[in-house]
């Protein structure tokens, strides 16, 4: 029985081996399938050279063009006023920003003015006798002298004798001493040189202000300025007075600025040149970050394409007889996403979008229809 089972298994193995061998022989003789040539569909464009406006992108934050750092030149207590000295407070031109108690200094000014008046009055009898021709003008000066007003200028001295007499009595030195005290008295009140807003306040009512102490900052909100750094290669392209398109970071607001100044020197560290753009808008605030597009130059007989269509060897793909080919081009300006090219003949068919794995000699066919951007 055992021999019969072993014999049957052997016969079964031989039969299975025969069929497997036959199948392998049939598959070996079967012809291999011919691979079909893959023809990629590409977006194309036809070259039409023209004038390309080169736009230089830049960015920066706004600062007030007119800024006043308020410092004290005298000492005294800071006095309160109807308008609180607080950040965000609006002041008109000529309005008092800071009032420092000047009562002690005011008394000194009045005392010195009184001494000047007395000195002039003391020489009047001598003027009547010795210089009758100038007596009247000095008399008129005394008549118009008001202790509560600014000291008027002394009468014009017309002769050497008069000059020696007046100077010898100490009138000239007394007069300039009074004017010096009056000038210092004016420093106890600080007025707004322009309409604007207080952005920083370092003192409060009752603070003892010391000479040289910073009191705050005041800015003009009518005009802001943006400082941008440009590559020194573009220094000769940016002109004062050119309009500039500005946008916020979200691209939701647009503004129009104007180049007001261009620095005459190049930063030795960064090799950049600084340009300043003025912008006026009631919605702007100091510190807002904006992006600028400066119209730098118009390039003639040029085209603008996506930057990734230009190879590192300054070549671009063209379509010739349904095959890709490479030609040389001359780049004249690079932006983040675009490149401006010259020396590309009119009528040349170029790729509009890059093709993965593209090579010279690749078989392609133009796409017929409309792409996602709406271009045919």
UniProtKB/TrEMBL annotation:
Superkingdom of the organism of origin: Bacteria
InterPro entries: MdtA-like_BSH
Domain annotation Multidrug resistance protein MdtA-like barrel-sandwich hybrid: ranges: 69-216
One Pfam family this sequence matches: BSH_RND
SUPFAM superfamilies: HlyD-like secretion proteins
Protein name: Efflux RND transporter periplasmic adaptor subunit
Taxonomic source organism: Algibacter miyuki
Lineage, highest ranks first: Bacteria, Pseudomonadati, Bacteroidota, Flavobacteriia, Flavobacteriales
């Amino acid at each position: 029985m055992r021999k019969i089972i072993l014999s049957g298994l052997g016969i079964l193995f031989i039969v299975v081996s025969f069929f497997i061998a036959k199948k392998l022989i049939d598959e070996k003789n079967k012809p291999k399938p011919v691979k079909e040539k893959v023809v990629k569909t590409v977006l194309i464009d036809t070259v039409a050279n023209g004038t390309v406006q080169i736009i230089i992108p830049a960015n920066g934050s706004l600062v007030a063009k007119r800024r006043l750092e308020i410092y004290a030149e005298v000492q005294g207590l800071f006095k309160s006023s109807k308008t609180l000295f607080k950040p965000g407070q609006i002041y008109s031109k000529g309005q008092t920003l800071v009032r420092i108690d000047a009562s002690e200094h005011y008394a000194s000014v009045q005392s010195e003015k009184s001494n000047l008046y007395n000195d002039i009055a003391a020489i009047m009898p001598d003027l009547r006798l010795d210089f009758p021709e100038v007596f009247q003008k000095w008399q008129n000066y005394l008549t118009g002298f008001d202790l509560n007003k600014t000291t008027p200028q002394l009468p014009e001295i017309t002769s050497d004798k008069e000059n020696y007499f007046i100077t010898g009595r100490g009138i000239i030195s007394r007069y300039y001493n009074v004017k010096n005290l009056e000038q210092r008295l004016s420093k106890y009140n600080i007025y707004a040189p322009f309409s604007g807003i207080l952005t920083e306040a370092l003192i409060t009512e009752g603070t003892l202000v010391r000479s040289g102490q910073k009191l705050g900052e005041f800015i003009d909100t009518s005009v802001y300025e943006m400082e941008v750094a440009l590559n020194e290669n573009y220094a000769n392209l940016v002109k004062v007075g050119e309009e500039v398109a500005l946008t916020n970071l979200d691209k939701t607001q647009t503004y129009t600025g104007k180049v007001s100044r261009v620095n005459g020197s190049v930063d030795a560290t960064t090799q950049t040149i600084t340009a300043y753009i003025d912008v006026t808008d009631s919605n702007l605030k100091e510190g807002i970050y904006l992006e600028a597009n400066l119209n730098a130059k118009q390039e003639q007989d040029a085209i603008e394409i996506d930057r990734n269509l230009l190879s590192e060897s300054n070549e671009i793909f063209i379509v010739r007889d349904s095959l890709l080919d490479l030609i040389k081009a001359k780049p004249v300006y690079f932006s983040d996403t675009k490149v401006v090219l010259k020396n590309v003949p009119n009528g040349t068919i170029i790729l509009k979008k890059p093709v993965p794995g593209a090579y010279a000699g690749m078989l392609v066919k133009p796409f017929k229809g409309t792409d996602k951007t709406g271009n045919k």
